[in-house]
Amino acid sequence: YKRQGMATVGALAAFDGIDFDRSPPSAAAYPQTQLGRRLFDAATLVRSNVGVDVIHIDHGDWDDHDDMGPVGGDLAGRLVDLGQAVAAFRNDLGGALTRTTLLVHSEFGRRVDQNGSRGTDHGRGGLAMVLGGHVLGGRVIADWPGLSPGNLDDGALAVTTDLRNVMAEILRLRLGVWNIASVFPGLAPQMVGAVG
Quick one: pLDDT at residue 144? Predict the structure, then answer.
């Protein structure tokens, strides 16, 4: 326990010198939301060069069983928040973005059909977005089946790309983790072409 305790003390000492009250660049207009504050803190850690390899941010409340709204509903508001927060994070990092990879994903998707509460219920196929250094961007990586009923999986988009493959590719090519089985037991990882 002594070694873990010393590592904790060292981490706290490194964090002590980080200015979490800094002013972001003018181009980085973070929304005044929980996600905006969390991405601001993440950018502060990256910019501080303290050797952070992974930052995980859990941002919930996407369970859109009701009132999704195409323009003004709950989902629309959360998507605006997400877009503004990610854009501010990108602008805040500046040159540090080349050594950063941001993965935005959900653990599951939604059904295609609307339920009785103007929302959608739990589905299968979701999405992942990757931003940052070494990202092979500007394209969609998917085997898009379309929305015709015959192509749906019990009313939901079919899963065509295993999210673990996206994560495994980032782990390998950005963090040098080659033993993917230690992270995802039983997965035979396939390269998807998200990062290079």
Answer: 85
